[in-house]
């Protein structure tokens, strides 16, 4: 097995986030299912391994000067990036999307009844994400930052009330999985976010925003599942065993 075949999807995207575009092209989940290898996803989806590896090699061998290598960010900086980029994105975009979906249901719902289910699914997703982000901001992220500060100052840290960092991480990963399922359903209902032929400008903008929301969510989940969470688990091992 060569180096490409043995790497997990999450490891590819952690090394170079531009590879996410390749996986998205083939509808390969690089965030929630990032633990799978190239060989596994190709077999399951019936994708040519040679073609996928060629696309990945092209990306990996091209210039990447402007891309951030998130693997080398400290936990503190990574948390800040997630908060300022992805949590803020969700907070800012959700009210607009909710308003647009409500308008589309009222104006176009009779001709496009799928809009009601799309609105319901997005509402569930948005509400769940608000609670999800609060758990991260109040419980997990402060502990990760405290661990890193303790490592840097060569100090000990008390065991958290949740026992081990792996407990909230497992819960958050399950919630990530649920978000991925919801947006898979939205993608199906929207024909991969393709507006119908009779779509007005609001229709087109809403579908574009839903696509943007999904893409941001994928990157958000990837940064946590494949980089921040493993970093936190490894840091915790420096203080005590589970």
What does this molecule look like?
- The protein is mostly helical and 242 residues long.
- The chain has 9 helices and no strands.
- It has helices at residues 3-6, 9-15, 19-25, 38-45, 49-60, 75-108, 114-152, 166-189, 201-236.
- Helix 2 crosses helix 9 (201-236), helix 6 runs antiparallel to helix 9 (201-236) and helix 8 runs antiparallel to helix 9.
- 27% of the residues are buried.
- The mean pLDDT is 89.
In short:
The protein is about 70% helix and about 0% strand.
Topology:
Blueprint: H1 3-6, H2 9-15, H3 19-25, H4 38-45, H5 49-60, H6 75-108, H7 114-152, H8 166-189, H9 201-236
Helix pairs in contact: 2-9, 6-7, 6-9, 7-8, 8-9
The residue fraction in helices comes out at: over 70%
Number of strands: 0
The low-pLDDT segments are none
Percentage of β-strand residues: under 5%
What is the overall silhouette?
A: globular
Distance between the termini: 33 Å
Kindly provide the radius of gyration, computed on alpha-carbon positions and rounded to a whole number of angstroms. Answer: 20 Å
Give the structural class: mainly alpha
Order of helices and strands: HHHHHHHHH
Mean pLDDT: 89
* Largest β sheet strand count, sense and barrel closure: none
**Number of discrete helical segments:** 9
